[in-house]
Amino acid sequence: MSTHRVPWTHGKWTTPPMESQEEGGRLLVTAREGSDAWRETYYGFVHDDEHALLTDWARDEAVEVSFTARFEAQFDQAGILVRASDRHWVKTGVEFSDGAPQLGAVVTDGRSDWSVAPVPEWLDREVTLRVSRVRDSLIIRARVDDDAPRLVRVVPMDVDLPLQAGPYCCSPTRSGLTVEFHEWRLTEPDGGLH
């Protein structure tokens, strides 16, 4: 398959954001205060009101999303959401936590987990996330600007499970987070892990 850009009008919101508008081919999304995606672990609560623009996602395909955002408040976040159901999903991207941007992923299979690594040098720069669906796995990679992509995580995923994927953002602790999504693409998956 060749790379093709997904039109912003092609997806459907899991929860509509406060505002979204297309401008010069980009999508500007303003998150609602209190929006998030999380299930139970440690905090004990369930949040299922993230702003994710999703479309059906085929096997042996990769989804890429590029964005910039001015992260300022605890848990401001943006990236890619992959969803099978409200109890089975993966979000990956940049999340502002403990005073710095963190690159990470949350894998939810009934309950959520969380892994992060600080990337303070990524603040206010263009981030590209890429998730490849290969055999029984999701391979998550990320890069900033034109740097080489780095491996974020390998996630087990049932090869026959119907999935949807696309850009997402959340703002659990404040109002006013606006994410500028530059592109949403479907393309060939990674040829391998290494």
Automatic annotation (TrEMBL):
Domain of life: Bacteria
Pfam families according to UniProt: DUF1349
Transmembrane domains' residue ranges: none
Region feature Disordered, mapped onto this chain: 1-23
Cross-referenced Gene3D superfamilies: 2.60.120.200
InterPro entries: ConA-like_dom_sf, DUF1349
Protein name: DUF1349 domain-containing protein
Organism of provenance: Salininema proteolyticum
Lineage: Bacteria, Bacillati, Actinomycetota, Actinomycetes, Glycomycetales
